[in-house]
Prior knowledge:
Elements: E1 7-12, H1 19-32, E2 37-41, H2 48-53, E3 63-67, E4 70-74, H3 77-83, E5 87-90, H4 106-115, E6 119-125, H5 133-140, H6 150-154, E7 158-162, H7 166-174, H8 181-189, H9 194-222, E8 234-239, H10 245-257, E9 263-270, H11 280-292, E10 296-301, H12 305-315, E11 320-324, H13 330-336, H14 340-347, E12 352-356, H15 376-399, H16 406-424, H17 426-443, H18 456-505, H19 509-521, E13 525-530, E14 533-539, E15 548-551, E16 556-561, H20 567-616, H21 618-634, H22 640-672, E17 680-682, H23 684-695, E18 702-705, E19 713-715, H24 717-734, E20 741-748, E21 751-757, H25 790-800, E22 804-809, E23 815-822
Parallel strand pairs: 1-6, 1-7, 2-5, 5-6, 8-9, 8-11, 9-10, 11-12, 18-20
Antiparallel strand pairs: 3-4, 13-14, 13-16, 15-16, 17-19, 20-21, 21-23, 22-23
Pfam families: DUF4118, HATPase_c, HisKA, KdpD, Usp
Protein name: histidine kinase
Catalytic activity: ATP + protein L-histidine = ADP + protein N-phospho-L-histidine
Amino acid sequence: MPKRGQLRVLLGAAPGVGKTFTMLEEGRRLIGEEKDVVIGIVETHGRAATAAMTAGIPAVPRTLVEHRGVTLEEMDLAAVLGRAPQIALVDELAHTNAPGSKNEKRWQDVEELLAAGIDVVSTLNIQHIESLNDVVEQITGVPQRETVPDSFLRGAEQIEVVDLAPQALRDRLSGGFVYPAERIDAALSNYFRLGNLTALRELALIWLADEVDQALKGYRKDHGIDRTWEARERVVVALTGGPEGETLLRRGARIAARSAGGELIAVHITSQDGLRTGNPATLAEQRALVEKLNGTYHQVIGDDVPTALVEFARSVNATQLVLGASRRGRVTAAFTGPGIGATVVRESGDIDVHMVNHAAAGSRFTLPPLTGALTRKRRILGFVVAFLGGPALTTLLSLFRSEDSITTDVLSYQLLVVVVALVGGIWPALFAAVLSGITLDFLFIEPLYTIHIHQPHHLLSLVLYVVIASLVSFIVDRAARTTRAARRSAAESELIQTIAGSVLRGDNALQALIDRTREAFQLPGVRLVKAEDVLATSGEPLPDNQHTSIRITEDTTLELCGPDLAASEQRLLAVVTAQLAAALDHQDLEQTAKQIEPIAASDRVRGALLTALSHDLRRPLAAAAAAVGGLKAAGPTLARSDKQELLDTADESLAALAALVTDLLDVSRLQAGVLTIADIPTDPAETIAPALDELHLGPTDVTLALSHGDALAHADPVLLQRVLVNLLTNAHRYSPAGVPVHVSTSTFGDRLEIRIIDRGPGIPPEKLDDIFLPFQRLGDTDNTTGLGLGLALSRGFVEAMHGTLTPEDTPGGGLTMVISLPTTHTSQEQP
Length: 831
């Protein structure tokens, strides 16, 4: 069986970057090294430079495949296998073969060549990688049906990115080196937009970097290499959930930023039982900060924190570790030995460790308060169990008392202490321990019915019993407190998260806050009252005079129904009230903005209208008045030609006034939403021709490139013609003398586009949005051209027809106005 061939893939971010040219260049180089190289298939796409590169490289003739009366050319796989070259050049790896071919996809043909021992050099665009297909579609808006599985690409021995800067690619496209002239404008304004090309280029580089990283990990694993390789800086920041985390993250981000490609990784170690963890709210804030710093956040389970931290750092090939300085005091460190930082430094090996000082370093921990773990009812119940359970147990043990039963007696009283601790907490349990110790001495230890103990070991046993019972009581009570504290922390964390999310979203923020407040504090009812109006309520109706009122603003109060809150709950309640106040302010500002905006917009329009009317109505009114005045003053003595000239002037001026009034009425109809639109399948050519006739524009003024197909636009022909008249008027006015305006139509998917292209001065990018505002001329001081409503009306008409009107820069200078309208079919064309 022959040795499997090697695959080399030339990867490009977009068509036209030079993949095929580079492949042919490599073929020529290999021929110069006396290698047996053949062209399996090369797609030149009519590019002369690419076709010229094929000269001198042997090519296997293509096979012809008939499909539905069309003859298609495909790579002759059998012929290439029969030729058995050392290296085959196979273009467009993602190509779908014609029906009737041996394999459905060209990459499957390449697989057969590789299996036969033939090395293959092939080309591929980033949009054809299976795992990136949906990402590319989101970027470009163009779905790709031809893809290559990632598993096949990972088997390639070499993957090389053929890179070209986005603007350089657009320049190459504008020069006609990629697509024919009739496709250049459409490609530049769609798939080959600068933002698209930049995103695709970044995607290609990131994908290749990840593949290289995976290959590096595989190599280290295969060769048993555990030590860190500093291929690029990876900085791991250890978070405890303490306040120092923000300082550590920012320090880690600065370290990562010092080298190109540096990566920030944050990790938090939690214990397997989940009890040892940081403040959830603080960790959530730090996780958000990690995302802002372009890092990644990980949570790892491990009881041995230093070991878990070092193992994680090695697993991600980290080069540096950032930890906070110990928060333990000197006395604690003296008794407990080296801390986490010292242990990590000892075990880190090749990984550099940074110990960062912070405000909490060296401070002592304080134990959480023990009050409030159990309710008063539970504590009273514990004392009742101790009072009643002790005599009942004593009576039961007295019935079975013997000389050898002392051990059973002690364990029985020990069990009673544990039960009391579970029911009532530490103080009832301590009471039960002391009481049971006295009972044991009085009733079960010789001499009976006295508090004297003759045997020293009995005294020691009794003392140990009381101590053990007290310790067990403390442990059980502490466990109960820890459980309750954990539940409270989870509820507080969820409440804080809800508070933040509700205020940020703004939707029903007040109701969400009220609901979560009642649930978190376990209250029967909560409501928010402003003056006499209830803004939000949750739970049961609040009886009068049976609630606690907390003032939020001057006229707004939060009413809580239920018992008074503990001190720790009061602190959390302060956060809730602050966020309620913020939500109320936000709500008031939104309402004020909604009330002010129509007034402000109306004032702006009124001012612009008065300014425009003062300029644009004056000329036609003055001209009409002068013409009528001249006719009246001259009387019958006026020559016939002069009379006709004055009549023409008056007619022209009155027509201009009528057009201005029509535009104003249309603007008001658009703003009121009462413009009547006819939805008729329309051929763009049938509206372009009348528009040209209306403007008296001929072939020397406008060139046409209209597509002929079965696509018709959903449009109102009358309004579409008015839009074209406005756009053609502007394009012709600003085009240089002797340079015609170009009008083209094309179909992309379910949209039909009409492009009006001029070679005038263009519009600055920061002014592109302003041209569609009413009464805007962008520096045009010619008052004979109307009120400046043309483009505002045009966009309004197009959007009323469910289309878009978009300005774009014309390659080489000028402005392109693109009308995009829905079509009657959904065919998809790829640039």
